[in-house]
Amino acid sequence: MTSAIRQIPLDTAIHHHAHDFHQIVIGLRGEAEFEIEGLGGSISAFSGCIVPANHLHYYAGHGDNRQLILDLPHDAFAVTGHQRDLIRLFDAPRFFSLDPALRHYLDFLLQELNLLTREGSLAPLHSERLAGTLLGSLHARLANEPATPARRLDLVAIDRFIDHHLGERLRVADLAAQACLSEAHFSERFRQSTGMSPWQYVMRRRLESARQLVQQSGLPLSEIAARTGFTSQSALSRACRQAFGHPPSQLRRDPRGQLASPVTSPAQSAAARTLRPK
Predict the structure, then answer these.
(1) 276: pLDDT strictly greater than 50
(2) Is pTM, for the whole model, over 0.85?
């Protein structure tokens, strides 16, 4: 398949998606904001970002903006054959700035695109040559530079979101959206940060909230179950026995029950089905 080079403005409303081809975005005019699997930054004239395939990214332009966008399928001529090493550019998302030499090449590329567009259409092979030169030049400059580290997960904000929606059916996708990450990247980074999977973490917060309500309020157990996301009073009772060693009624009489460890057993997994991926 061939690559595609285009010049477009980005909508000022925030959009997000992922696609199965790599992408390079270079600012020509104005500014734009990108968030690529937790790595955020802005681009303006002569700066850009690398968006690897299948990476969820949020983006929005600011005012009068224009971007050069290069779409690269995995089997594009510009990243195969003797140029296959250039695919390493897309190992991770990153932001970059063009040095004076690359700015001159960008100016040439734009003039070439405009000239060939006026004459009819840009021949696919010539488009690949232009793309290959740009990729090769970027690769030569970025190969030895450390990638920008992604920002840390904001667990305080995630906790706030969970607690606000504790009585609802939470999905991993809901939590991932709060961090501007895909489900896969969110789950991986969440486990690295907390030592638990998202569903284990949510179940733990459900149980802690339920325990507090049992011990500190006079609410009926059926209402506590509904408020903390359990499908029934029986489901709450089973989960409490697994986590605390006592049913809710005994926790109400004896508040010493403690949550000893994250939810891991098959029975607890069944109780945690209120959080499941799409």
Answers:
(1) no
(2) no
